[in-house]
Design a protein that fits this description.
516 residues, mainly alpha, Growth Hormone, Chain: A, 2 domains, globular
């Protein structure tokens, strides 16, 4: 590990750095793959845990995604404290083991609530992988190679969004939904062995105390607030106790958490870092981008299955162009972010995303597949030119002593934004489908000849048109959020500024873990 740290000031990416990157990539792929695999399975969950004629609300099954990402956000701040206490190598291997065990349990779920609970357990393991990996890579790369190494890591990580829906669709169509979780078991075994043989041996060292009080406010606060919001479609209106009570309690906990976070010397999240204007702008841009992009992207496989009648596998294949587009532009954006200010790169990526979202606001039940594939590809091009440059911009603003806390803040912001995006978009879509009188019957008619006969051909056509309109209206919200993101991106650095990563310490001093 010393050799890696010593080489961090070099421009050359060495074999030792690539070996460490390989460990991080494998862990990241496991975590990301499971999000995208589940995305295509949501319509299956609606009928498997409900029925064809009475499917579970989309906003309910979406909690298999929201619960997972909330668990990721919850465990990120704990990672550094736990790594100090138990050792980085042990923690990494334990996280993979927990993720693998959670996957096995998910495959045995017999109700939607049980599946959501096991997904949370899975996320507690998966959430430790990214913050550890990002800090390790930041230390190994140094400021001169960060953009290129982020790009190298980003390309294989994007295999998750491409391969996940295809693999998930194939497993569901040929076997059952249980296998989308069982597939993680062999990957987990391989990852543990790789980590055991590659990561350098380390020893636990005395650590600072952990902010348990902050965690008891932030995590339940987020979960309760989003649960209240997600209950709106089921309850039918905002003013019901099931909506207001959890939402208001959650909001109160979050406000209290923010006010409290400025008092401890080592808070759960160091919000004082927002005094760094460049970091604050980067994280704000990342939050808005993630809410719009990941929230909107969740709906695409469901549209293909429920509106267009495609199989799960075909839906997975149809969303693959988005990941392919991102793979093409991410390496280019990574190289450019080493040479040019990100404020001159990110807006171009957002223009592509906005163009794709604008097209999706016009979708109907008969929109041609080439048009849909083209829109997804354009959005992928934009995603590849947006996400990694924003993350690179945020990390480059930090001094060595701030990298760990900044990485924690950046990672947790991304996961919270994804959770918010999924919850908000699923609620808007569920409300839209619920308000369309024939939408749910028309969707059910695809798998029920009896319902199809009752509605008639004209009724099914009208119902699918109404359902498609609900998807289009949801994308108007995502499009508006991309517009707000563009406004925030205007304030990103547009002139070259030196990195501060090694200002106050040498590379050897950059922590490998993420302390709280």
């Amino acid at each position: 590990m010393t050799d890696i740290a010593t080489a961090a000031e070099s421009d050359r990416i060495t074999g030792d750095v690539l070996k460490v990157a390989g460990v991080v990539v494998l862990g990241a792929i496991m975590s990301i793959l499971d999000i995208t695999v589940v995305n295509v399975a949501l319509p299956t969950f609606q009928t498997s845990f409900g029925s064809v004629s009475h499917p579970l609300p989309y906003s309910t099954v979406a909690w298999t995604v929201t619960g997972y990402t909330l668990a990721l956000a919850t465990v990120i701040p704990v990672t550094g404290w736990a790594a100090d206490r138990f050792g980085t190598k042990r923690l990494y291997m334990a996280a993979i083991a927990l993720f693998t065990a959670g996957s096995a349990l998910c495959s045995m779920a017999t109700s939607i609530n049980m599946l959501i609970g096991f997904r949370v357990l899975q996320g507690l393991g998966g959430g430790m992988l990214m913050p550890l990996g990002m800090t390790i890579i930041t230390r190994a790369a140094g400021p001169k190679r960060m953009g290129r190494l982020m790009a190298i890591l980003g390309v294989p990580m994007l295999l998750g969004p491409i391969a996940g829906p295809i693999l998930g669709g194939w497993l569901i169509d040929t076997a059952s939904w249980h296998w989308i979780f069982l597939i993680n078991v062999p990957l987990g075994v391989i990852a543990v062995i790789y980590a055991l043989t590659t990561l350098p041996k380390d020893s636990p060292r005395p650590s600072e105390s952990f902010d348990f009080l902050g965690m008891l406010m932030m995590s339940p606060g987020l979960a309760l607030f989003l649960y209240g919001v997600s209950s709106i479609p089921v309850e039918g209106k905002v003013g019901t106790p099931k909506v207001l009570v959890p939402a208001l309690i959650g909001l109160a906990l979050l406000v209290t958490f923010v006010l409290y976070s400025f008092k401890p010397r080592l808070p759960l999240l160091d919000l004082r870092l927002f005094r760094n204007r460049r970091l604050a702008i980067s994280i704000t841009t990342m939050f808005l981008f993630a809410v719009a992009f990941f929230g909107g992207l969740l709906l695409v496989p469901t549209y293909f299955q429920e509106i267009r009648g495609e199989s799960v596998l075909h839906a997975g294949l149809l969303v693959a162009p988005q990941g392919i587009g991102a793979m093409l532009t991410m390496p280019i954006a990574g190289t450019l972010s080493d040479r040019f200010p990100v404020g001159r790169i990110v807006p171009f990526g957002l223009i592509f995303i906005a163009a794709g979202m604008a097209g999706l606001t016009q979708i109907s039940s008969t929109t041609s597949f080439p048009v849909l594939i083209g829109l997804l590809f354009i959005m992928g091009l934009g995603m590849g030119g947006t996400m990694m440059p924003i993350m690179t911009a945020a990390l480059k603003t930090l001094r060595a002593a701030e990298v760990a806390r900044g990485s924690t803040l950046l990672n947790i912001t991304q996961q919270i934004a994804s959770s918010v995006g999924v919850a908000v978009m699923s609620v808007i879509l569920t409300n839209g489908l619920k308000n369309a009188k024939l939408a749910y019957p028309a969707i059910a008619a695809r798998n029920s000849p009896q319902i199809a006969a009752q509605l008639g051909k004209a009724g099914v056509h009208e119902g699918l048109s109404q359902a498609a309109s609900a998807f289009a209206h949801t994308y108007w919200v995502a499009f508006a959020l991309v517009g707000v993101t563009f406004v925030a991106a205007v304030f990103l650095p547009r002139k070259h500024e030196e990195s501060h990563l090694l200002d106050d310490e040498n590379p050897e001093a950059v922590p490998v873990t993420v302390p709280s």
